[in-house]
Amino acid sequence: MRDTRPSERPESTEHYIFNDSLTVVLEHGFQWGSLPDLNPIERERMTAHHAVRALTELCAGLIRPMSFGVTRNWLDEFDWPAGGCPPRWNWFLKMPQSPPDARSTYVDPQVMEAVTLDEQSMLTLVDRVLDDPCEAPEGARLAWEEMRVDHTWARLPEPDRHLTNKELRIDDHDNKVRRVLVPLERAHGHIWVTVPEHMVWYPFLLRVDKSTGTVCPDGLECDEIIKMTISVNWSFWWHPGEGRAMLDRAVDRLIRQGWFKTHP
């Protein structure tokens, strides 16, 4: 006779993938009064390089980027979007170790490949984006618009606590699936994790773009502000504990370098 008893639901795990990302938002201001002779493209290079170095500083010991995207656009004389897109407006950097699904969020990417994805390869791509020749429409100039790290591995906090029989399982709220087996990798003396196959969110998503703000917390007027959004998609690094402490220490490093937190 067929067993008609209700099957037992798997027991929930302690941690999970968020249905909606929780975010930390940082901003950094620039004043150009002390650099009056700096031409617009060099200002773009300065802010872009600052953004890349902040991303790599944030990631150190916490996040391993597996892709890096940069977009560019036209700005008018008032530094507002001028409409339309430059040719080759979307650039995407990956490496042989990038996951099979590593592709740009946007259409028509210029795909580049590097042996490793580190600060130098990211700076090289940024310079390529800003130096790639294109003729600007009258009254417009070239600028970078957005940087994205959409594919990541993250360092697992307290592996002795979270691993059972050398496995890690986590609940995926988006897909309503419990105890999903998470890919693990040992590197640099730590255990790193990434999104399970057929799941939705990588551990972290990182984005840097231009902010509409012009005033820093100290009251100083800024000529330009860039904004970093850190989307935390797994509870390991948001709930109180060693994972959250790792994230807080990474954010504090940027604050000591002149970034200021605007959220939460």
Average pLDDT reading: 92
pLDDT < 50 runs, ≥5 residues: 1-7
Helix/strand-derived category reads: alpha+beta
Strand content: 25-35%
Gross morphology: globular
- Please count the helical segments: 4
- Which percent bin holds the helix content? 10-25%
The helix/strand series, from N terminus to C terminus, equals EHEEEEHEEHEEEEEEHE
What is the number of strand segments?
14
Compute the gyration radius: what is it? Answer: 21 Å
Tell me the span between the first and last alpha carbons. 57 Å
Biggest sheet features: 10 strands, mixed
Relevant terms:
alpha+beta; 264 residues; 20% helix; 33% strand; 10-stranded mixed β-sheet
3D architecture notes:
This protein is of the alpha+beta class and 264 residues long. The chain is built from 4 helices and 14 strands. The protein has helices at residues 40-59, 119-131, 159-162, 242-256, and strands at residues 16-30, 63-65, 67-75, 90-94, 110-113, 141-149, 152-155, 169-172, 177-181, 184-187, 190-193, 204-210, 224-234, 260-263. Strands 1, 3, 4, 5, 6, 8, 9, 12, 13 and 14 form a 10-stranded mixed sheet that branches. Strands 2-7-11-10 form a 4-stranded antiparallel sheet, with no helix packed on it. Helix 1 packs antiparallel against helix 4 (242-256). The protein is globular. The N and C termini lie far apart (57 Å). Residues 1-7 have low confidence and may be disordered.
